[in-house]
Amino acid sequence: MPLSPNIWALVPVKRLTGAKKRLADVLSEDERTALSHAMLEDVLSALRSANGLAGTAVVTADEEAVAVARQYGAATIADRASGLNEALTEASNVLATYAAKGVLIVHADLPLASSSEITAVVEHAGPAPSATLVPARADGGSNAMLLKPPNTIELAYGEGSFAKHRTAAHQAGLDVRALDSAGLGLDIDRPEDLEALLADPTPCKTRDYLLASGIADRLKRSA
Fold this sequence. Notes:
Elements: E1 7-13, H1 29-49, E2 55-60, H2 63-71, E3 75-78, H3 84-97, E4 102-106, H4 115-124, E5 130-135, E6 142-148, H5 161-171, E7 175-178, H6 191-199, H7 205-212, H8 215-222
Parallel strand pairs: 1-2, 1-4, 2-3, 5-7
Antiparallel strand pairs: 4-6, 5-6
Helix pairs in contact: 1-2, 1-7
């Protein structure tokens, strides 16, 4: 079955500076900023090489994130919302006005995301109206979600979002599919997530940063 040319990836970025506060016990603010920058590059690189996407848009109010998006050929949508769900809903509506038939929401903290995994999500999706979800490995989150058409369900990002999104999609009568994905499944929020990333040999900018900065050695010594 041919892939739809009208699916856009949407990457939300609140801010890079001082992000990932749950890692504050093991990383300084500058290190967390650099980590977030590297992870965004990994995600955008994977999206740029994936098949089946019409393009990628980053929704953000962060100037550094805008610059990274442009470096990878992604469009940007200004984030004027008060929260993640509202920002993604408004950005999805913007993409819909430009004829997007589906929106693939991918978070910016998935350093092991690969173009092949992203393509697999698009290929795995059912016909519209549909929802295809990739769960987080550990915390019940929705690390990636393809909605055809955009905003087919009310977004519920936060604790337990995978179950909430799946339930909402079933209640809306959508074709609901889930896809486990090793790379897309690892989001970086806790020190143990950094350890899982470093234990994986997959090349990525985030892993390179952790090794070159000495963070990897420091985490190993403190383990």
